[in-house]
Amino acid sequence: MTYHFDLTADDYREMNLAAYKWLPVLLHFLPHALSASLAVYLIAPWALQASSQGASIAALVAFGSVLAWMFLSWHRKVLGAIDTHYGTPARSVIFGPHTLSFTDSGLESSGPMHRSFRDWRCVTEVRVTKTQVLFYTAFGVIYILPLRAVQDLPALEKWLSDRHVEQPNRSLERGRAR
To answer: Helices 22-47 & 52-87, crossing angle to 10 degrees?
Structure first.
């Protein structure tokens, strides 16, 4: 199976966003929000002359506010960093026509700046998102196959499954990365 397509900055942006899961981000900021709420709970009785119930309410409001602010500002910051990264002229050399071929022995890829081969044994995960099929490898390289280039996604998934190309301990997964 061979696919020809043009990769754009939007494709690389989507690939980067697919790598992020909301739960780990939320868990990362949880201690920060808990620390802020603890500080409010301890300071509120003294600074606001609040009762313990009032301090608890203020701490809950602080917890929710800090968590929401960090969560939302993180997303904006990541989007900005990704857009800046792929918007530089030096990175524009990776955009353009690409070919991704699947053989019995592995995945062959070529583009404006590369030509590579990966044995199927080094493909650690295949994730289908809303717009792409992503092939994660043991080398940290992610191959992008835009769904706009795939005429028959179920046939591709079956072909990959028949060759045991899958995520360890799970079959091909339709991941919703957001």
So the answer is: 140
Residue 166 pLDDT: 57
Q: Residue 32 corresponds to which tokens in the numbers above?
A: 């920060």
pLDDT given at position 165: 66
In the chain the domains, ranked by start, together with CATH numbers, are 2-7+94-174 (2.30.29.30), 12-89 (no CATH)
- Give me the phi and psi of 176, to 5 degrees please: -105, 100
- The tens digit of pLDDT for each residue in 81-103 reads 888 888 888 877 888 899 999 99
Highest-confidence range of 19-23, 46-50, 87-91, 120-124, by mean pLDDT? 120-124
DSSP string, the chain: -EEEEEE-HHHHHHHHHHT--HHHHHHHHHHHHHHHHHHHHHHHHHHS---HHHHHHHHHHHHHHHHHHHHHHHHHHHHHHHHHHHHSGGGGGG-EEEEEEE-SSEEEEEETTEEEEEEGGGEEEEEE-SSEEEEEETTS-EEEEEGGG-S-HHHHHHHHHHTT-S-TTS--EE----
Whether residue 65 has pLDDT greater than 90: yes
Cα 38 from Cα 122, distance rounded (Å)? 46
